[in-house]
Amino acid sequence: MIEEKLESIGVKLPNPPTPAGSYVPVIRTGNLLFISGQIPMEDGKVIFTGKVSDNNLVTAQKSARMCAINILAQIKREIGSLDKVTRIVKLSGFVNSMPEFTQHPKVINPASDLLFEIFGEKGKHARVAVGVACLPLDSMTEIDAIVEFAE
């Protein structure tokens, strides 16, 4: 059971964040979930903010991991159980970075690593990691996902 695995590694799923704009958090079409960009939000507050640089890489990695946890919370809310996930198809990771920062993949890796750890082979996915000039609510990171599931 995925929930037991989460508990064993110390991950507690939060209530899924509500959208910060005029969109829905998840679209279900066929057996795919398109999960809107998740930021490092907890209890309605952005936890990790500001520009990413070489000086705060570890903090930015924590931000990306929190985005992945919020993705998991959205999945659970939408389909009821993480055990229904058959594949993490793709992540798109955005890093609110300083212009000279070039380690975007390293920032997003903890999100990918968490999904690999939880889902094993089903957690392997395609991915993009890019730097951007700013993100909503000054978030350090934002990650969206495409997830396949079975009923």
From TrEMBL:
Domain Endoribonuclease L-PSP/chorismate mutase-like: 4-143
InterPro entries the record matches: Endoribo_LPSP/chorism_mut-like (IPR013813), RutC-like_sf (IPR035959)
Gene3D superfamilies tied to this protein: RutC-like
Top-level lineage group: Archaea
Name of the protein: Endoribonuclease L-PSP/chorismate mutase-like domain-containing protein
Species of origin: Nitrosopumilus oxyclinae
